[in-house]
Amino acid sequence: MRFKELAESYGFQIKDVFALINGVWLKRPDIQSVGYHGHHLMTIPRKIRNQPTRQVTLEGSNLPFYFDLEHKLRSWNLLIKKTPHIQGIEKKNLKIEGLEKLYEN
What we know:
With 105 residues, the chain is an alpha+beta fold. 44% of the residues lie in helices and 28% in strands.
């Protein structure tokens, strides 16, 4: 809950991750995704631990604990707010949407 509140205060969204297993899309039981305006930023465990553990994903990758995730989230917040990369992408998307609406009528 604490991580979710912090992410939402920065404007990030936490979404479920799905995998195609035997032709069926299923929700992954081990991880979630943190994103900003539709852009994936980082992967987090579904259950965040407050100390280092040997928690791994289904593929065997180690999952970070709360304070590592908090540090990464704060770094992403600074990076997104200080660099024009994502803002430039959003401006282009708004321009494209405006042109699409113009040509629909």
